[in-house]
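Aim 2, interim progress. The first record below pairs a target sequence with its structure tokens.
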Amino acid sequence: MILHIATKEIHHNLTTLRFALMIILLPVLFMANALIYSLGDNGYTTQIDAYNRQVEQNRKHIKEQADMSLAELALRGPGDIPKRPSRLIFCAGGVDEVVSRAIKMRSDGNISRSSGVEDEDYAWRHPLKLEYQIMPAGSNSTRYIKINWVFIGVLMSFFAILFTFDGIAGERTRGTLSLIMSNTVSRGQVLLGKYLGAFVTLMVPLIIGILMNLLIILLVGNIPFNSGDWLRILGIVGLFGLHISIFIFLGLLFSSRVSNAITSLVWLLLTWVCLAFVFPSLLGIFVSNLNPIPSVDEISMQRRAQLDQIDDEWREGPSPKLKKSPAIERPSVARLWATYFTEISDTETQIADGHIDRQLQQVQLARDLTQISPIATFQYAMEGLANTSIVGYMNFVKQARRYRQTFIDFVKTEDRGDPESLHIYPVKEGLSQKPVDPAGVPVFTEQISYRSVLSQVGLLVLFNLLFFILAQVSFLKTDVK
């Protein structure tokens, strides 16, 4: 009986104007998405070309510095740390569209001596530091709608409402609900039959659109997918199914609670707008006002004030500690400069890391709160599988920090093998002046984890169970006449 009701529901849906609208709109959106991300300026091909150029520049930079000396390599560093673009960025752009795709790992340029140092022409470099860049909220990347799979998923939740708002209320208005219930069929079977009818009606055109999208990307964009990518795409299709299922149950819930289809549609549209736009925006504003982040100018002023204080203690004033420049024949002076540089490095690292950590934590808190909306949960799960989520970027930042320390440890280890070195890091005169094998320099490799997606999948399953139970209880209490 369930299949009979589902078949009847599918046949009815295929003859409606809303299905004609969906069957026209979905292919257009999927084709537009495929062309934009295959050929556009922000597509995968453009991003991977930029990434490969950065990697090649880093290799060339490392070889040039390593051929000069270990000391030169230690102070100039291995180059910026690029984040490899995701092949599934066409599914969900996420934070990859609002943050820099590379973390800068560099030292300050040469700085001439200031008062207190006897050598007029002495210059030095500060230790390596990481620089993070997040684009402002008003940047071009946030001024227009991204036609990606997340956007299509939000649209599909709207179509789920259109296909279910009159599922029960419409039958009651036409008087056919009492005829259906007069047969040997339970209300649960009727509910599941209508659910399956709407689910198949929505999923079949969606899967066809996805196949068209992938075919265009493979042929036009020439983007190769490996087995892991195909598994993630399969998981994304599953996310679509969970997401659409939630709004089918939601539509049936409202349709069983009101007396006519128009009232059901009005309430469903209000609920959808709140879940898609109002709740995420309000909670985002609440979090930003709850724990405001200092501006870039404020951070720069704080950094400058602390560095000036260190300079006053070490190099300025009536009795500066650094009266001589470091040299191989003056190891005690080199150790003083190493202490000075280390204090500067610790201060800059603490300020830069603290600022980016607060920004990322604020974004993460806002996203955690907005997961009261299944639409937001669906979006974050999509970004997680596409490796464009805030959690993925936070992991990338942590790995970049570990790589910086790995590089420093490599320098110290290599330096210990030179008996002529003073073994004083990070002073150039205190490190080995001999070349080093560039092949031995550690290379940054990003490790990707998808474990964070499990929590979003669990929430989507819970939303399905919740709305199914509510719809079932509501329908049981509904008068069929």
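The second target in this work package is listed in the same format:
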Amino acid sequence: MKTLWPRPADFNVLSETKINRKNVLALTEAADFTWEGLKAKSMNLFSLGFLNSFNAQVKMFPKMMNPEIAKVIGQYKNHALAWKLSGAGGGGYLILVSEKNIPDSIRIKIRIKELGL
């Protein structure tokens, strides 16, 4: 996880919201892929769902992305399998899924007792 920056005080991530059936379905399907990847202990399936979830969220909330965030993501595209923003859009944290160590990041390990992870 990489710390980004606080979002500006006047920022409204909901100002151009595009919540519709198609976009919500894409997010739901991505969540299913992510969960199935966890259950199967498949990094590839989990990463696919995680990245699809990010893309679905950006479709519904396009203001959560901006050129500065895209630039940070671009720095890690060769190191990470997937990424997602956390923190209400416009800043916060960039969560990176990687089996490699990513310098200057906070390492998080997923643990799910019921799945033996």
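The domain at 2-9+19-115 is CATH 3.30.70.890 (Alpha-Beta Plaits). This observation will shape the mutagenesis plan for the next reporting period.
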